[in-house]
Amino acid sequence: MSMRFLITGGLGFIGSNFIRYLLNKNKDARVTILDKISQGANLDNLQGIDDENYIFIKGDICDSKSIKSLIENVDAVINFAAETHVDRSIADPWPFFKSNVEGALTLLEVIRNSNKSIRFIQIGTDESYGEIKEGSFIENNMLKPSSPYSASKASADMFCIAYHNTYDLDVTVTRCTNNFGPFQFLEKFIPKVIVRAYLDLKVPIYGSGSNIRDWIYVNDHCEAICKVLEKGRAGHIYNIASGNELENIKVAENILRLMNKPKSLIEFVEDRPGHDLRYSLDSSKIRSELGWKPKYKFQEAMEETVNWYLSNEHWWKKLLDEKNIHQTPWKLHQ
Ligand SMILES: NC(=O)c1ccc[n+]([C@@H]2O[C@H](COP(=O)([O-])OP(=O)(O)OC[C@H]3O[C@@H](n4cnc5c(N)ncnc54)[C@H](O)[C@@H]3O)[C@@H](O)[C@H]2O)c1
């Protein structure tokens, strides 16, 4: 029998890429998407996916009544749903607590009370570990989140592991580094650099641009999630990383070079509070245990990504008009 999925947050960047990846790999998969249509959501992210392959339901993961009916007919729940913009979490943490903590807990509670055997994958982030000056975090390192966003994500991970330990739920947590690729919301670093450079607007970089992030192409992340879904152990956490550690300034300069735009577009702006200097994950566990490794080379994937935004102007122009992107709460980068 084909597997039936509830994919929460499926209208967002990674969720929509995951649905496309999953349906390409497994044409028989049956997908129900639940999304509240919050900031990062976009129905146009499902473009190119045959609408016979999924059902979309607008709803909130905090609404236990709807979740209860939705999980009646699913084998697995993959929780991508979250408020995800760190700057927004600094301006107002409550929506982050609500969706990221209460939402995850609601899903766990409904599954526990259903007495069904449902596989639950929680999509977590490297930001939960906090910054690391040297070396890389392994899965059982202490969590030291710095922002309200990462605190909410760390908290959800802990509920997930607790639900496995206490109620024996079939729950696995993934923690991935920074993703890039098509369909990423324009508030995020890489699409922001591409679109602003295209429009010849200043490209804002926090502080001196020396913060280091480890970048992974979104399809590599999607493949890792599939491996975890198939073979990941319940009650376990899997770090996912490609090992492309780069300073933000280097990433921005690379994009400007690919677009033939001048470096003078870069504008250093006041750093955000609690800005972690470096994230780094050791992903040996998923590589050795589940046989995953990244397929995409950073530079090729970055070129593909830049080209995607340049040839999909209709996608991002509509967002600029509809979502007031330049009005991000922490800084106005006009
Ligand atoms: N983008 C990254 O680099 C990255 C890295 C590691 C982990 N993650 C995690 O991956 C997941 C997806 O991230 P993304 O970058 O695609 O974010 P995104 O903001 O593009 O998408 C999140 C989606 O969740 C939906 N959502 C938010 N609250 C909801 C709620 N209460 N009920 C239902 N839907 C809700 C939003 O409408 C949106 O469509 C998040 O959990 C994030 O923490 C992201």
Helix/strand layout:
Elements lengths: L3 E5 L4 H13 L4 E6 L18 E5 L5 H7 L5 E4 L6 H6 L2 H21 L4 E7 L22 H20 L3 E6 L1 E3 L8 H10 L4 E4 L5 E6 H14 L5 E4 L4 E3 H11 L7 E4 L14 H7 L7 H14 L1 H11 L11
Parallel strand pairs: 1-2, 1-4, 2-3, 4-5, 5-6, 6-10, 7-9, 8-12
Antiparallel strand pairs: 9-11
Helix pairs in contact: 1-7, 4-5, 6-8
The chain binds nicotinamide-adenine-dinucleotide.
Task: Provide a descriptive summary of the structure in words.
It is built from eleven helices and twelve strands. The chain is α/β, with parallel strands linked by helices and 334 residues long. It has two domains: 203 residues, Rossmann fold (3-Layer(aba) Sandwich), CATH 3.40.50; 88 residues, Alpha-Beta Complex (UDP-galactose 4-epimerase, domain 1), CATH 3.90.25.10. Strands 3-2-1-4-5-6-10 form a seven-stranded parallel β-sheet, sandwiched between helices. Strands 7-9-11 form a three-stranded mixed β-sheet. The longest helix has 21 residues. The protein is globular and about 60 Å long. The protein starts with a strand and ends in an 11-residue tail after the last helix. The C terminus is likely disordered. The structure holds nicotinamide-adenine-dinucleotide. Nicotinamide-adenine-dinucleotide binds next to helix 1, strand 2, helix 4, strand 5 and strand 7.
